[in-house]
Task: structure prediction
Amino acid sequence: MAAGVLSGAGTAVADEAPRSGGGATATNNGLKTYGEAVIHEDGGDRRVSAGLFEMSVDGGGTLQTYCVDLRNPTQRDARYQETSWSGTSLGTNKDAGRIRWILQHSYPQVNDLAALARKAGTRGLTEQDAAAGTQVAIWRYSDGADVDAVDPQAEKLADYLQKSARRVAEPQASLTLDPPAVAGRPGERLGPVTVHTGASAVTVSPSADAATSGVRIVDKNGKAITAARNGSRLYFDIPEDAADSTAELTVQASTTVPVGRAFASESRSQTQILAGSSESTVSATATADWAAEGAIPAVSARENCAKGGVDITAVNKGDQPFTFQLMGAVHTIPAGATRTVTVPLQEDQAYDFTITGPHGLSRRFTGVLDCKIQGAVTTQTARLPNEPGPASVGGSAVDTTDLAATGGSAITPLIAGVAIGLVVIGGAVLVVLRRKDMTPEA
Result:
């Protein structure tokens, strides 16, 4: 059975999140190298900060990213997970490959700014110019935005990158396990689970529960392994007398994350795309379920922006059907069969559902579907500390909405309202006091 709760906002801590298919997990530290840009819209021109963000990777490492989600705010300290393009707006963007080309042929991948300036036909570029020009070119493809860099040199770079960009393929994940869930009977080797990574080697660790149950992680010949590499096939070796249960294995490595990998946040912070990576810690997890008889399901999930929902995949390795209910519909997976059920969701809709089954199976999936760019600016955000303030461009009035800045939140209007209220109250108090001073003494 599956218990599902869908809402329009908010998320819960996930036991397993569809977006987390392995790779790097990081915290956004805000804009670090940036200039300014102007977005031209029907409502007027809007000045924004444009450039490179920096993220700190869990376990060690630093990432540099650009935004591919202009009209959503970026929240400082938001948590991000490496993900495939299919789980973001890039998955349905025919120009996503051009964005990766821009990343490969501009700053910071190209750090010879003099050479980059010559290609762009400009006399020189600072790091701020290069970051701003690159971001502007990306926004033209990621959001279809009518946007220009404020600095003339940055604008020339943006034009060069936009005109030169060619479609290239989506990069492979830094580290994933496929499939992320397996099932079977005691006395069997459950798998294989294949390692996909650009790292030279990964460490392999069973969970504490697995070790307690006597479960080993082995290769196809039954030899216990603690290290693997790209293409390695891992198996859960389940003892014959093991009680019906579940176990996990985790693989971890230190590697550079491929340029062009997407990073998404479940807090609705702007989707990011990787521009540069230090040596960083990456990891992935797979689960195994086993039972002596009956249905033995292995369940996993991933967001699918092409279908506008979350794909739930169930593999039944047992000798009886596995039946579960989800979103008012009953689904039955015959013995030995595999089925994928797409749970349709509205854009920006939060979801939280748990699929349970025999032998203690429980898999919880939570998140927020974030597949589309917004058509209009709806969120006002605060500027970063020490960030240049908005100014007029070309003599016209410029809206001070700072779309790309970090730190904006839904509490901003509340703070403004409270401030206005305090000003009104203060003014009323002054009026009362003045009247009291003007009253003649008896």
